[in-house]
Amino acid sequence: MTIAVEEIQGRTQEALPQIGDASKVAPKDARELSRLFFDRLAVLEEGTPEYSYARNTLIEMNMSLVRFAAGRYRSRDPEEMEDIVQVGMIGLIKAIDRFEISREVEFTSFA
After folding, report:
1. Eight-class DSSP state of 4
2. Are 39 and 12 in contact (CB under 8 A)?
3. What is the pTM of this model?
4. Could you tell me the pLDDT band of residue 56, with boundaries at 50, 70 and 90?
5. N or C: which end of the chain has fewer CB within 10 A?
6. Whole-angstrom Cα distance, residue 51 to residue 57?
């Protein structure tokens, strides 16, 4: 999926782009989309459908980060691996909720 950077930057005050499968977004596009979604998350009211969509999309786009980190423990029992991924997902969600884009740090470094 390729989305032009100008198109993303021009949408800051408009509706967020609809992403079919967030896990298949190209890394370059994911960075730009993440910035857009974090910008909007900061101004949206928690509990609104648009806030939920932005937060859930950020979670889906960054699930691979959790799987990558959990991969270090792949020699363990499959049930333990599931637990590790679950704990990683909880950490990812907390990181998304606490991330401040104004600090100008990449989210992947923060998480």
Report:
1. -
2. yes
3. 0.74
4. very high
5. N
6. 10
Per-residue pLDDT at 14: 64
Measured from the Cβ of residue 60, the count of other Cβ atoms closer than 10 Å reads 15
- Domain parsing of the chain, residue ranges: 22-110
Task: Report helix, strand or coil for 62.
Answer: coil
- The residue-averaged pLDDT of 82-97 equals 93
Residue 8, pLDDT > 70, answer: no
Here the tokens at position 9 are 């930057």
Q: Residue 56: left if φ>0, alpha if ψ -120 to 50, beta else—which one?
A: alpha
Among 52, 21, 57, 20, smallest CA distance to 36 is for 57
Residue 2 is classified by DSSP as -
- What are the angstrom distances between the C-alpha of 68 and each of 27, 73, 102? 14, 10, 26
Rounded mean pLDDT, 39-64: 92
